[in-house]
């Protein structure tokens, strides 16, 4: 079973590319971030034409996450990350699909730092850790995937100096991410690529794509029950180079059947 994550950077603007990717790669589950549309504007009918059923958590012009499943509708478990009743940003959606608990996340960017946006990022990561602990306690096969807006190590970026002051690389951001791994979650891409050098994002500016000046901020964290089933993982890099593409490339994991 293939589970993929794709920050689409505007589902209406990138819909042709998204449909193209779904048809070409056919993941069983696709988690989308930055759909940037209100709930009523989500193009569910377009996905249904391809056999995908969806649930989504939208927001006008910003953020927004969705989970698509091939041939079945995800069973929603949780909409919105618990821990802050005043947080109205659409960044978290959790569902059961094909026997796996799937959480799709769009973690706050946190720039500029220091400041309130960085404080919000760290608070959000603390809330995420609490929710992931609850999921892990259920002992279900689970994957937390999406745009984490964290570059975990210097091996996950083309030039550490280029982003040294960015919120994505601050010690506090990295420490919060590392705590998730220490809690028992497995970073799928890092496990299969221990030397790094795998990018999922290339900025639109300064010829970053043409020069391969990228970094890895899209991750898939697997619970112990699912980590044992990890067969392979990768990034559909060629989709980043297509016309009017997102600045992210889709990343995916392939899982062995449950024994």
Write the topology of this structure:
Elements: E1 2-7, H1 15-25, E2 29-33, H2 44-48, E3 52-57, E4 65-70, E5 75-79, E6 92-97, E7 100-106, H3 116-137, E8 142-147, H4 171-182, E9 186-187, H5 188-192, E10 201-202, E11 214-215, E12 218-222, H6 224-227, E13 230-235, E14 251-255
Parallel strand pairs: 1-2, 7-8
Antiparallel strand pairs: 1-14, 2-4, 3-4, 5-6, 6-7, 8-12, 9-12, 10-11, 13-14
Helix pairs in contact: 3-4
Site (Transition state stabilizer): 149
Domain Endonuclease/exonuclease/phosphatase: 4-248
Cofactor: Mg(2+); Mn(2+)
Radius of gyration: 17 Å
Mean pLDDT across residues? 97
The CATH homologous superfamily corresponds to: Endonuclease/exonuclease/phosphatase
What is the domain total for the residues?
1
Order of helices and strands: EHEHEEEEEHEHEHEEEHEE
């Amino acid at each position: 079973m293939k589970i993929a994550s794709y920050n689409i950077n505007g589902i209406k603007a990138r819909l042709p590319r998204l449909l193209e990717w779904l048809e070409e790669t056919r993941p069983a589950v696709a988690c989308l971030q930055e759909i940037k549309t209100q709930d009523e504007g989500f193009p569910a009918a377009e996905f249904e034409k391809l056999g995908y059923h969806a649930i989504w958590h939208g927001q006008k012009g910003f953020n927004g996450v969705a989970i698509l499943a091939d041939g079945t509708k995800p069973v929603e478990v949780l909409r919105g990350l618990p821990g802050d009743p005043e947080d109205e940003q659409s960044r978290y959606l959790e569902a059961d699909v094909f026997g796996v608990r799937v959480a799709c996340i769009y973690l706050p960017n946190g720039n500029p730092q220091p400041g309130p946006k960085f404080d919000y990022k760290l608070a959000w990561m603390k809330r995420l850790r609490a929710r992931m602990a609850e999921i892990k306690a259920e002992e279900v096969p689970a994957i937390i995937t999406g745009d984490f807006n964290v570059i975990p190590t210097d091996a996950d970026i083309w030039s550490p100096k280029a982003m040294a002051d960015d919120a994505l690389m601050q010690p506090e951001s990295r420490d919060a991410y590392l705590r998730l791994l220490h809690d028992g979650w497995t970073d799928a891409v890092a496990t299969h690529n221990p030397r790094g050098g795998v990018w999922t994002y290339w900025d639109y500016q300064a010829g970053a794509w043409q020069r391969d000046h990228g970094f890895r901020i899209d991750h898939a964290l697997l619970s112990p029950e699912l980590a044992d089933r990890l067969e392979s993982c990768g990034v559909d890099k060629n989709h980043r180079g297509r016309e009017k593409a997102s600045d992210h490339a889709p990343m995916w994991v392939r899982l062995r059947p449950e024994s």
